[in-house]
Amino acid sequence: MSAKILQGKDFAAQIKESARKEVEELKQKFNVTPGLAVIIVGENPASQVYVRNKHKACEELGIRSENISMPETTTKEELLNKIDELNAAKDIHGILVQLPLPDAIKKDSEEILNRIDPRKDVDGFHPMNVGKLVTGNPGLIPCTPAGCIEMLDLAGIEIEGKRAVIIGRSNIVGKPMLHLLMAKNATVTVCHSRTKNLPEVTREADILVAAIGKPQFVTADMVKPGAVVIDVGINRIAPKKLVGDTDFENVKEIASAITPVPGGVGLLTVAMLMKNVVTATKLSVR
Ligand code: NDP
C-alpha cells in the first residue's frame, strides 16, 4: 500500500482563501488593511527566498507588506530601534525578523525577538505567546507547527487518543508541536539527540513528526505500518535538490499518509503566517 501524499499546496490554498476573506472583512468592517513588516538583515540567499515568498503571499491576499532590508553590519541597537519604530506604527500589525541573524548579532537573537510587541509577534516566538500556548490560552502560535496541525485537521486525520512522537525539541518546531498535539488530546513523546533506542520509540507512533534537520534520517524501519508521517525537515543536498528528514520513497510504502519535501509543510508555514497577520490585526481593532 502506498501512502496518501499530503500536498501542501492544496491545504495552503484553503488556509489562504479563508485568510483572504477575513482580510476583506477587516477592510470593510473596520477600514483596516492588515500590514506585515519583514526585517531581513544581511544577504543570506535562503532567507531572501523565504522573505520573497512571504511578500508574494501578502500580495495575493490583500495584506500590505513592508520589506525592511538592513545591511550585514547592522548592530543590535540599530535593529532594536527599528523594532521599536514598527511596534509603534499604527499601520503595521505583524512584525517578523527573518532568522538566522548574521554571526555578529546571532547571540542576541532572543533579546531581539523579545523586543517585538507580543501582539504583533506573528512568528509566535515571544515568551508571552509561548506562555499562552503552554497554558492553553489563545495567542499567536509558531507558523510551522500550527500548519502541521491545520493540515492534519483539513485532511480529516484524527489526533485525539493517538500516540504521537516528535523527533526534535527546538523552540520553533518540536516544543510548540508538543503543546499543540497535547491540546488535541494526543499522547505525545518528544525525542532528541540523547534519546536511547530511537527506532523503538518512533515505531510506536500513529503520528510521527520529523523535525531534525538531517537528510532522510527517518527510515522505513523506524515507522509503524499505517502511521501518518509529517516531515518538517528542509535539507539542501545539492544546489537544486531539497530533501526532508524522512526517506520519502521507502517510508511512503508503509505509511498511511506522508508530507513530501518540497511541497509539504513548507507551503503551510507561509499560509499560517498570513493567518497570524489576520489574527494580529483583529487583536488591534478589538
Ligand atoms: P534544530 O536544529 O533547532 O533542532 C533539531 C532537533 O533535532 C534538536 O532537538 C536535536 O536534538 C534533534 N536531533 C538532532 N540529531 C538527532 C538525532 N540523531 N536523533 C534524534 N534527534 C536529533 O532544528 P529546527 O527544529 O529549527 O528545524 C528542524 C528541521 O525543520 C530543519 O531541517 C529545518 O530546516 C526545518 N524547518 C522547516 C520549516 C518549514 O517551514 N517547513 C520551518 C522551520 C524549520 P537536541 O535538542 O538534543 O540537540
Strand order of the largest sheet: 1-11-8-7-5-6
Low-confidence stretches: none
| Content of β-strand | 15-25%
Q: What are the secondary-structure elements, in order, as H or E?
A: EHEHEHEHHHHEHEHEEEEHEH
Mean pLDDT: 97
Oligomer: single chain
* SS class: alpha/beta
Write down the overall geometry.
Answer: globular
Question: Would you count the extended β strands for me?
Answer: 11
Radius of gyration: 19 Å
Keywords:
three-stranded parallel sheet, 16% strand, 11 helices, six-stranded parallel sheet, alpha/beta, binds NADPH dihydro-nicotinamide-adenine-dinucleotide phosphate
Blueprint (SSEs and pairs):
Blueprint: E1 4-5, H1 8-30, E2 35-41, H2 45-61, E3 64-70, H3 76-88, E4 94-97, H4 103-106, H5 109-114, H6 127-135, H7 143-154, E5 163-167, H8 174-183, E6 187-191, H9 198-202, E7 207-210, E8 228-231, E9 235-238, E10 241-243, H10 248-251, E11 257-258, H11 265-285
Parallel strand pairs: 1-11, 2-3, 2-4, 5-6, 5-7, 7-8, 8-11
Antiparallel strand pairs: 9-10
Helix pairs in contact: 1-11, 2-11, 7-8, 7-11
Bound molecules: NADPH dihydro-nicotinamide-adenine-dinucleotide phosphate (NDP).
NADPH dihydro-nicotinamide-adenine-dinucleotide phosphate is lined by residues 144, 167-170, 172-174, 191-195, 198, 211-214, 232-235, 265-266, 269.
